[in-house]
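FAQ

Q: What does a record look like?
A: Structure on top, sequence underneath. For example:
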């Protein structure tokens, strides 16, 4: 299982970024996916979930109404569209899944929100 997040960077408060996660090594369309994040000096925080077909989603209260999770099963890619970014969104963002009880979390991408 390989999960590679990309699309992070620096953004001013109120801006938008779209993260992508390229998946390989497993049948992407069969598994639900999640985004997690880890802010400096803190533990992992769950951000969002999407089921395997892409028609069921959920969000942490901290991002609800600002972030949108989606997926393209034909491209084996997961997305996180982030709007109205806040300094507290600064973190390394990871895509993740659970296969046969094992949690997989690939390389993350840094998102920094500051003025």
């Amino acid at each position: 299982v390989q999960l590679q997040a990309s699309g992070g960077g620096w953004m001013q408060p109120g801006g938008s970024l779209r993260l992508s996660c390229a998946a390989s090594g497993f049948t992407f369309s069969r598994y639900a996916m999640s985004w997690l994040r880890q802010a400096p000096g803190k533990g992992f925080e769950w951000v969002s979930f999407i089921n395997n077909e892409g028609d069921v989603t959920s969000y942490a209260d901290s991002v609800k109404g600002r972030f949108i999770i989606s997926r393209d099963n034909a491209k084996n890619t997961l997305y996180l569209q982030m709007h109205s970014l806040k300094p507290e969104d600064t973190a390394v963002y990871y895509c993740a899944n659970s296969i046969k009880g094992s949690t997989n979390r690939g390389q993350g991408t840094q998102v920094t929100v500051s003025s």
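Q: Is there anything notable about this one?
A: The chain is about 0% helix and 55% strand.
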